[in-house]
């Protein structure tokens, strides 16, 4: 029966995706290049932008931002990267909105068609004023057409006015990444944007390009950059005035070419230097004169604002501007989804509240657990779901309110559990007997574990309420984004950017006050990365501090289970609950036996504002060098060293750390992790790790080309021990390095650059990992302030193995000086309206009811508790 059900789901999903072996929906053009369109398909970014092309001409390009001016109230998400169009692929070459996205009274739709023969795409975007008053808007079209600096750095190489400075006088602009080789071939494919009818001296065209901007940062106020990483972010701005009820449209063409350095596919011929740059310019020039408006209705043509009547007629000879005078010519958008209410029935404001504060307020009768849970549920309903939601939560606990009532009764009877009544969310990679555990994947669609993971059980034992499951990068596979089968998470401090992966949902949920704390995991950067992007505290402890029993693996031994909190004090409270020895976890014993008799009885006892007094904090210069070669963020972090000094520490530069010892690591540790997980889960729907690793239900971007596993299989006991021995040798080497340089800890950065947009390619930020994950030494992560663009920045303190409690104390002392915690402006407190929403939000993405009771596939079949992608994937026709 398991096989039958899986086959049905497989057929459904494969039928919905035209290219089952590729990410997103892809269209292949006449050059053999591909266009990866961010439509409604999994992971559901639904921006209508181009995630990538084979020749690397586009790297998250074609998105739109809209700034609404003159609306009755300024929209909360004014200027964000728009998404949520329910953009649907016709299976050939076109994508169409099934719903409009509303912002400040303006409903926006998007239609995208790709001309395969001409190697270009047409973006047709409409803007409808749904109010009774005029509204002015600025619309910015653009995105990323290069990355980093060096050979992948892009720049403007041509415009229609024969210069390299885009202006309203240009009909088109071309960018490329020329290299120093003979003929200056472009490292990545060139691309051009056809902007419409330009202005000309004496005859300005009202709908033409107004100006250019930086599509990544401050898009409507910061000019287009010409140097550095941000020079890869091109924004083209039009200003429109919409009368009441009026629809105007903008049409842009994007032309791409192949790399003149690298073949687009194995065996393909590399074009001659300059040939693709010339071909793209020629095609852009042709489209500027004779735009391809095939298939547009008269109403759609009449709505065009950035093309003159003469240009439209050149593209559609049957068109005449006189046709637009008829009142029957309309261009109405699809329906706009009803917005979630921005109210709460809870009188208690949870925004920015720490666990410590909530415990104190419950103790003193200011609030109770029911009010706290109700407040979080209402905030999730208001801000996390819908077209412009953050998508941090996959499923919610339907019994949360009942559990809150039980916690209140227990408190009334004198119970003093340390986290009694505190709601937390759990990365959907941890077993929860009460809720499905999916790993963010259709591979475990509706899978219901039989018992809680060790850490979840510890939280429950401490009195915490498991509010729900947070989204993640499928099986924790991505350290730059958090894409799952149930949506991709958006950044809490800039809802156009990546949340960083893989624990992005957990971090965003805490940062936006959807829960008081959250569990996440780290294999490489998935605690410190999301923490740094969300101004939170976390600890990647010395190997073995916590148990990973009941946690889906990325790799055996190196995975670490930890928590996100708003403060160091809160981190200590959670560690009191979860930093325990688990006698049923052989992995913890294998790598962390050194913790025997060393775990603190109370982590809070190490929190002392004088913990940095007399300490020496080391840093080495290379740790603060952004691989994108920017300096704004790293300069800001180094300036925050002053808080160490204010707390009584000395900061000094030290030599680079030693490299890792030789690694005798052989075998497939991802396979071994899944093997151990299967052995610990009698009701697993799979008995073979290969059936999980190579499962064709995985997210396309993480999917193996073949469903047949061809790896090395399980690791032996000697291989596992050799890997642990390697890690412990590295721990000893780092301890000697710190001791030899006379430091108590070493400071590392969080993100080293501005974070890129959520529709872009890897890498999404300047990343340099400390040795913590590779060696298994502790790193405490904590807020320090913000960078020049207002992005929160964190620092990390790394110490010798088993120095975790002391590091937490140092972070507390720093916190008292810096007060570096930042609060997001994008999810403000809800208006209190008594007697509203008396029933809890059960599940943001409820599955249809089912009567099947297939083990491992369906849970609680008569209820609507199971997670679901944001939109139902239609069956094949």
Walk me through the topology:
Blueprint lengths: L1 H15 L8 E4 L5 E4 L12 E4 L7 E9 L18 E2 L4 E3 L4 E3 L2 E10 L4 E10 L5 E10 L10 E5 L12 E5 L14 E4 L16 E4 L18 E10 L4 E10 L18 H15 L8 H6 L5 H7 L27 E2 L10 H9 L5 H15 L9 E4 L3 H13 L10 E5 L26 H8 L3 E6 L12 E2 L2 E2 L15 H8 L5 E6 L5 H7 L2 E4 L19 E6 L2 H11 L7 H7 L23 E4 L12 H8 L2 H5 L3 E4 L15 H11 L9 H5 L23 H24 L4 E5 L22 H4 L3 E8 L5 E7 L5 H15 L12 E2 L45
Helix pairs in contact: 6-7, 9-10
Features:
22% helix; alpha+beta; single chain; disordered C terminus; eleven-stranded mixed sheet; 877 residues; disordered N terminus; 31 strands; nine-stranded antiparallel sheet
Helix content: 10-25%
The mean pLDDT is 90
In total, the number of strands is 31
Unreliable residue stretches = 1-23, 838-877
In spatial order, strands of the major sheet run 18-20-19-23-25-24-29-30-28-26-27
Beta-strand content estimate: 15-25%
Number of helices: 19
């Amino acid at each position: 029966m398991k096989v039958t059900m899986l086959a049905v789901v497989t057929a459904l999903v494969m039928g919905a995706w035209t290219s089952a072996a590729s990410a997103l929906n892809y269209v292949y053009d006449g050059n053999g290049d591909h266009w990866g369109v961010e439509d409604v398909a999994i992971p559901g970014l639904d921006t209508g932008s181009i995630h990538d092309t084979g020749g690397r001409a586009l790297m998250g390009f074609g998105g739109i931002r809209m700034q609404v001016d003159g609306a009755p109230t300024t929209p909360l998400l004014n200027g964000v990267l728009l998404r949520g169009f329910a953009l649907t692929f016709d299976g050939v070459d076109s994508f169409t909105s099934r719903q409009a996205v509303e912002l400040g009274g303006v409903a926006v739709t998007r239609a995208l068609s790709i001309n395969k023969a001409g190697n270009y795409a047409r973006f047709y975007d409409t803007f409808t004023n749904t109010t009774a008053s005029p509204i002015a808007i600025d619309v910015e079209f653009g995105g990323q057409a290069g990355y980093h600096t060096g050979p992948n750095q892009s720049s403007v190489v041509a415009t229609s006015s024969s210069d390299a400075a885009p202006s309203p006088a240009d009909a088109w602009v071309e960018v490329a990444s020329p290299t120093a080789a003979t003929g200056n071939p472009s490292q990545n494919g060139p691309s051009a944007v056809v902007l419409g009818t330009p202005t000309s001296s004496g005859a300005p065209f009202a709908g033409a390009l107004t100006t250019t901007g930086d599509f990544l940062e401050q898009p409507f106020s910061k000019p287009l950059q010409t140097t550095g990483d941000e020079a890869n972010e091109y924004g083209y701005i039009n200003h429109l005035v919409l009368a009441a009820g009026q629809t105007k449209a903008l049409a842009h063409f994007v032309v791409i070419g192949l790399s003149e350095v690298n073949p687009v596919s194995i065996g393909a011929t590399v074009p001659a230097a300059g040939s693709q740059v010339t071909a793209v310019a020629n095609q852009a020039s042709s489209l500027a004169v004779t735009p391809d408006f095939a298939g547009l209705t008269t109403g759609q043509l009449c709505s065009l604002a950035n093309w003159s009547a003469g240009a439209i007629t050149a593209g559609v000879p049957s068109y005449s501007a006189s046709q637009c005078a008829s009142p029957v010519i309309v261009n109405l958008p699809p329906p706009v989804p009803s917005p979630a209410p921005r109210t709460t029935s809870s009188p208690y404001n949870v925004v920015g509240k720490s666990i410590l504060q909530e415990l104190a307020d419950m103790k003193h009768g200011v609030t109770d657990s029911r009010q706290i849970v109700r407040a979080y549920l209402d905030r999730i309903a208001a801000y996390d779901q819908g077209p412009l939601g953050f998508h941090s939560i996959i499923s919610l606990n339907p019994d949360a309110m009942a559990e809150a009532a039980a916690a209140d009764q227990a408190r009334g009877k004198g119970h003093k559990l340390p986290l009694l009544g505190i709601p937390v969310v759990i990365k959907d990679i941890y077993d929860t007997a009460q809720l499905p555990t999916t790993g963010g994947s259709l591979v475990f669609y509706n899978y219901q574990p039989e018992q809680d993971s060790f850490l979840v059980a510890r939280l429950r034992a401490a009195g915490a309420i498991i509010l729900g499951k947070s989204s993640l990068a499928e099986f924790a596979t991505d350290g730059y984004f958090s894409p799952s089968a149930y949506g991709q998470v958006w950044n809490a401090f800039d809802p156009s950017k990546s949340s960083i992966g893989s624990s992005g949902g957990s971090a965003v949920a805490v940062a936006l006050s959807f829960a008081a704390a959250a569990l996440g995991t780290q294999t490489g950067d998935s605690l410190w990365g999301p923490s740094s992007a969300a101004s939170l505290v976390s600890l990647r402890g010395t190997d073995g501090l916590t148990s990973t029993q009941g946690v889906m693996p990325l790799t055996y031994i190196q995975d670490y289970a930890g928590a996100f909190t708003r403060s160091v004090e809160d981190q200590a409270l959670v560690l009191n609950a979860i930093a325990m020895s688990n006698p049923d976890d052989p992995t913890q014993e294998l790598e962390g036996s050194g913790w025997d008799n060393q775990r603190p009885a109370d982590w809070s006892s190490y929190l002392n504002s004088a913990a940095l007094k007399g300490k020496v904090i080391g840093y080495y210069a290379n740790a603060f060098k952004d691989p994108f070669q920017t300096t704004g963020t790293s300069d800001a972090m180094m300036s925050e060293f002053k808080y160490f000094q204010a707390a009584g520490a000395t900061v000094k530069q030290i030599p680079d750390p030693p490299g890792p010892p030789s690694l005798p690591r052989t075998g497939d540790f991802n396979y071994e992790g899944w093997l151990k997980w299967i052995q610990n889960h009698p009701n697993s729907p799979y008995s073979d790790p290969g059936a999980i690793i190579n499962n064709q239900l995985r997210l396309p971007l993480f999917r193996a080309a073949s469903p047949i596993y061809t790896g090395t299989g399980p690791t032996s006991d000697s291989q596992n021990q050799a890997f642990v021995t390697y890690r412990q040798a590295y721990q000893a080497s780092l301890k000697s390095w710190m001791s030899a340089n006379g430091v108590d800890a070493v400071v590392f950065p969080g993100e080293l650059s501005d974070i890129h947009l959520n529709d872009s390619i890897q890498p999404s930020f300047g990343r340099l990992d400390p040795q913590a994950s590779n060696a298994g030494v502790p790193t405490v992560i904590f807020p320090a302030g913000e960078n020049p663009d207002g992005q929160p920045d964190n620092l990390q303190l790394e110490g010798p193995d088993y120095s975790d409690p002391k590091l937490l104390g140092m972070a507390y002392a720093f916190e008292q000086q810096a007060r570096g915690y930042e609060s997001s402006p994008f999810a403000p407190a809800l208006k209190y309206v008594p007697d509203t929403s008396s029933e809890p939000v059960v599940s943001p993405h409820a599955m249809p009811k089912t009567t099947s009771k297939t083990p491992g596939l369906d849970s609680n079949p008569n209820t609507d508790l199971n997670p679901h992608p944001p939109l139902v994937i239609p069956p094949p026709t």
